[in-house]
Amino acid sequence: MSKAIWKSKNEPDISLVENLKTKLNAPDIIARMLVQRGIDSIEKVNSFFNPRVEDLYDPFLMKDMDKAIERIQLAQDNKEGVLIFGDYDVDGTTSVALVYSFFKDKFTKIDFYIPDRYNEGYGISNQGIDYAKSAGITLIIALDCGIRSIDKIEYAKSLGIDFIICDHHLPGDSIPNAVAVLDPKRNDCDSPFKELAGCGIGLKLAQAYAQVCGLDERSYLQYLDYATLSIASDIVPIEDENRVIAYYGLKIINQQPRIGLKQLIKIAVNKEHLSIGDLVFYIGPRINAAGRIKDAKTAVKMLIAEDEAKANSFVSELQTQNEERRVVDQQITKDLKEIVEKNPILLNRKTLIFYQEDWHKGVVGIAASRAIELYYRPTIILTKGSDNTLVGSARSVRGFDVHAALEKCSEHLIQFGGHMYAAGMTLKSEKLDDFREAFEAAGADLLTKELLTPKVYYDAELDINDVNYRFYSIINKMAPFGPSNMTPVFYANGLKDDGTGKIIGKTAEHLKLNLKRPSGPIPALAFGMADQFSAIKKADSFEACFQINENIFRGNRTLQLMLKDIRITNDV
Q1: Contact present, 149 and 124 (Cβ < 8 Å)
Q2: Does 43 fall in a domain?
Q3: Which residue among 145, 300, 310, 431 is least enclosed by CB atoms within 10 Å?
């Protein structure tokens, strides 16, 4: 039986629903879902279903953008060497790919740099600055990092190197003394949209430069695919500017993918039309694998490749590294289960912190996500760093701000940074016990029983007899889906398998059902729910929360239900 709480999303204003239904001549359920998402007028409907690049905000609304462009133009005039510096994850590597590609023919000397996860750690590093100095670089454009690198910026200044910081993480109490600090989360930034990914900040920099220099908007819009990859992988809200970027970026990815991405898509998913979800689950992990396992520069080289043979070589490297990442991921997950089995008292805690010195540093973030799936508690996975330090990643449950919790534990940390639901940190090994208790204390008051119970939110109740291609096509027009515009989830009861259902999968973990309805059965898949098969066969009926998608097999297209959770209603 399901342990999750099922909740209907907020009941929309009925008068707004009726008004929208009438004006759109749309089914009631569609009008309800739109109003639930804040799309409650014809004007908003038109903007939602027809995003326009003209809706991208003026980049000069962002604090320090004028200073950034002035410094870039000065570097051009003086023929300075420029270094594009970025983080080693998808957001960082796509940011570097975008800004490097945009500016590569605008400087006489330009290079890019991705820090080594293991030798340098997250963000701006002294090693990277030293590299810039040795290469005669006098301007560094940092992407997806830098907002808390106050000491690193000062070190660079002492060597005669200026910084332009393009970041989207939360600032600390002070802003680094860089030439320009572009971060919409600055308290003094008037940029209307605060939730751009790091690559989105790089896009705004390119947009600003194009405006000042009178370049065609296509000069930067051609890189919306990079920004879309970052939006998907960094799990930022797909609304406002991000919706515009993702809408058009997906068009590029699906219609005119770059050489490297085209080959990566073929190997990873081989679908004719990719969604944001496909980028999250198939493309992002392979790009991330480079920085997790070996060298993130491979990911950048794949993204910017213009030669097919070289692109294929980089893609092959990423695929190999991703397979290695999978093996490591599975081993850490196995270790976590064994730790909890030996120490079940751990589950009496509201937060979990695991440490093992031989865990792979590049995979601890994924392992923390796995732990959330298993135990549904804010979780930190730590491994051995350098110089008597521990490094790790945190992941959180819905409604709990893990970054704010780390703020309360900051006296035990060397450094930390991140977002509400994901963060990274470094601490001295002798501080582990103190940190574990401080983190538990930070969560003790906020983490109620309800907050520590998984939830399935559904948009509306739906009769499965109403699932057809007309309904599916309307839903599809609401894409791209992601945070703030999630793929619709529906609730249905009275469901019954037609007797042909079976357990499937290499490890016999999944269910494939065929649900009865007058017009003919509709297939349904339930991943990880094989243990409910016997109960389903015996029951009068069951209820489920589900999404609708299309299965394409050997050219045949059929709709199917993707069951997110199941409850047995009437046992025989």
Answers
A1: yes
A2: no
A3: 310
The token pair that represents 559 in the structure block: 């709709």
Rounded mean pLDDT, 504-522: 93
Is there a single domain that holds both residue 427 and residue 506?
no
Q: Do 84 and 224 fall into the same domain?
A: yes
**What CA–CA distance (Å, rounded) separates 49 from 46?**
5
Does 162 share its domain with 224?
Answer: yes
Angle at 350 between CA 346 and CA 355, to 5 degrees: 50
In this structure, what CATH number is given to the domain that contains residue 375?
Answer: 3.10.310.30
Q: How does DSSP assign 105-130, residue by residue?
A: TT-SEEEEE---TTTT-SSS-HHHHH
Query: Which CATH number fits the domain that encloses residue 83?
Result: 3.90.1640.30
Q: Tokens 């291609």 sit at which residue?
A: 469
Check whether residue 432 and residue 385 sit in a common domain. yes
- Domain match, 434 and 467 both: no
pTM of the model: 0.91
Domain count, the chain: 3
Q: Assign 170 a pLDDT band (cuts: 50, 70, 90).
A: confident
Worst-scoring range by mean pLDDT, 341-350, 433-442, 478-487, 563-572?
A: 563-572
Assign 512 to helix, strand or coil: strand
CATH at 529: 2.40.50.460
Same domain, yes or no: 382 and 467: no
pLDDT tens digits along 274-329 = 999 999 999 999 999 998 888 999 999 999 999 999 999 999 999 999 999 999 99
Which of 493, 528, 531, 533 shows the shortest CA–CA distance to 513?
A: 533
3-state secondary structure of 425: strand
Q: Which of 189, 190, 165 is nearest to 177 (CA)?
A: 165
Instruction: Give the pLDDT band of residue 11 (cuts 50, 70, 90).
Output: confident
* Chain mean pLDDT for the chain: 94
DSSP per-residue letters across 215-269: --THHHHTTHHHHHHHHHHTT---SHHHHHHHHHHHHHHHHS--HHHHHHHHHHT
2 pLDDT band (50/70/90 cuts)? low
Task: Identify the pLDDT of residue 570.
Answer: 58
List the domain range (segments joined by +) for residue 171: 59-235
- Regarding whether 129 and 73 lie in a shared domain, the answer is yes
Q: What is the dihedral of CA 439, 440, 444, 450, to 10 degrees?
A: 100
